[in-house]
Amino acid sequence: MALIDLQVPTSIHIDKFSGSSIAVASAYVKNAIFDKYPDGRVYSMQRPSFDIFSDASVNSKPAKGRGIHYWNDATYADTYIVNNDTFYRNNYGGISYTLTGGGGFEKVWMTELGGDLCLADPENNEFYTFNGSAMTAVGDAQCPVNISGKTLAHGCVVLDQTLYLLTTDGIIYGSDIANATSWDALNIITAEKSEDGGVCIARHYNSIVVFGNATIEYFYNAANPVGSPLSTHVDVSYNIGCVDGNSVASNGDMLFFAGLSATGEVGVYMLNDFAPTKISSPSIDSFLTVATQIDNAKLIGSTFGAGGKLFYVLTLYQEVGGVITPDITLVSDLSSQMWAEWEHGSADIDSLPIIGWTTSTTARKGQGILANGDAVNVFDDFNPQDTVAGVDIFEPTITITGTSDVDFNNATTNITTTTTDLSQFGVGDTIDVTGTVSNNTSFTITGTPTASAIETTVAPTNESSTSATLTREGVFEAGVFSLISQEGDDFEWLLRFPRLDGGNRNNKLLDEIRIRADQTDNSAEILVKWSDDNHSSFNTGRTIDLNRPEQKLVSCGKFRSRTIELSYTGDETIRIEGISAEVRGANK
Q1: Which DSSP letter does residue 88 get?
Q2: Secondary structure letter of residue 347 according to DSSP
Q3: What confidence tens digit (pLDDT) does each residue in 21-46 have?
Q4: What is the DSSP letter of 247?
Q5: For residue range 305-358, what is the model confidence (pLDDT) as tens digits?
């Protein structure tokens, strides 16, 4: 009898794929992250959860999320999002402005300069400034979007009070100092290491980095008195191209992108201290190469942080009818050097196609936008459920008293007042209601709100509650509306362990499988499945409840080579270190 310990797999190993779909994988990780116990042992648990704080479909907006930015302005501090051809403050119930150059589905790029929020839209070859009250397409003849024959590449960056844009022919254009509406015809410089055009411009430390189709070049502020203040870093450049400008994403001074080698292989790279380091595995490289270079898949990249970890999120997608249709979302956890597939818990969301994520100069929670237009928060609370604002669990009718006009999910039915005095309830405030909460019953919310905000959800604890607690900040419309409760969507956590063969190809008996895991407070049934045909098909499986002291299965049958898979879909937080197998006939 041999006792064989298998540690949790910390990355995907792809064996077969077709287009942008993984067909067979000998090791697989889904919706999982990894951490260490104090003694150094590695365990797996569920990824952070996401909450949709502004739902595009509920608000009848297109499935065309394009960008998000937090503007830490003294007067106009707020989150700003772009969906198709419209720019919104805070959420889809907030003030909106039209992008006059047209809409689309590709990423827009936002930054700040001279008291303005600036927005570059390569898909429509447009550049805008927003001063807090008006969105204006920049009309200066020397701005590259107004120069005949010039097309914006991806990116929009500021260095030393100058905003820089890149065109697809590899020319960098600089604005006037602290003024993105004014441009000088002489303030240009060409990325000329190779005639490979321009794909994306970004900032790396105090330098500008230009990604071409085949090279990476760097520029620094040389304070040149005439022409562009930039000069080339002649001592540092690389013969690695960028396969898709939408894959470029930054977090602090680190940059991530899908790169193309001189021999045509696609991989994921991190720029740190100016040097590109590949962070993808060989099997992921093969998958990305075939998907992008042969099957024409496109890429979107973004980064975000949670739980002290930094994640790079890469979605492969097809464009169908002007809308992003995700194929798969792959995520790299930079702290553990793992790759996993992530999916959202809602059946209405394919994969987890994060277009962009906010950065800020002030302490605040991170927010992102998905390709379907939903704006999300990341919840770092160890509650493995994705929440979606607007999930109808039960809908008693609520009547708000008072004279304030406050907005809930843009509802406009039965409004009894048209005043513009918006009023806010704070997160966690309790609103008393009369009677018993049940379907189709009217209630009066008592009390007068104070201050202003935008959207909320009132969530009674159950259908017999006599009070309701706000789950997020927001505004209500005076009058009658439906109260909507939120409920979390469970997502599937999954680990597929590398093949178990006991050191030989003989028939063996698996007497026992034991999960090495923390005991949960409540029932958490782990589904244990296995495959004896090179992970092509799996049995229906048996369950082990992590709430029970004995976390094992017995009499698991005969095999030569076996792949074991664990999965869990539920609201208990799990921490699993690995599995132990008692095998008769194994060498080790």
Answers
A1: E
A2: T
A3: 888 888 999 999 999 999 999 999 99
A4: G
A5: 988 899 999 999 999 999 999 999 999 998 877 899 999 998 888 999 999 999
Least trusted range by pLDDT, from 224-228, 242-246, 481-485: 481-485
CA 484 – CA 387 distance, rounded (Å): 13
Alpha-carbon distance of 366 to 303, in angstroms, equals 11
Comparing CA positions, the residue from 117, 181, 176 lying closest to residue 145 is 181
pLDDT, mean of residues 69-86: 93
Q: What is the pLDDT of residue 51?
A: 86
The rounded distance, in Å, linking the Cα atoms of 96 and 61 is 12
Q: What integer is the mean pLDDT of 97-124?
A: 96
Of the candidates 98, 153, 78, the one whose C-alpha atom is nearest the C-alpha of residue 375 is: 78
* CA dihedral sign, ordered 345, 347, 350, 356: negative
- Please answer whether residues 473 and 427 qualify as being in contact, where contact means their C-beta atoms are separated by less than 8 angstroms: yes
Q: What is the 3-state secondary structure (H, E, C) of 132-150?
A: CCCEEECCCCCCHHHCCCC
Nearest partner of 401 among 416, 414, 411, 412, judged by Cα: 416
Residue 351 near residue 326, CB atoms below 8 Å? yes
Domains in the chain, please, with CATH? 2-47+491-584 (2.60.120), 53-388 (2.130.10.10), 392-485 (no CATH)
* Other C-beta atoms lying within 10 Å of the C-beta of residue 570: 20
For residue 464, pLDDT beyond 70: no
Q: What is the pLDDT of residue 468?
A: 37
Amino acid residing at 465: S
Q: Work out the angle at residue 202's Cα, subtended by the Cα atoms of residues 20 and 148, and round it to the nearest 5 degrees.
A: 90
**Long-range Cβ contacts of 34-39 (<8 Å, 24+ apart):** 34/8, 34/10, 34/333, 34/336, 34/338, 35/307, 35/336, 37/577
Side chain identity, residue 571? D
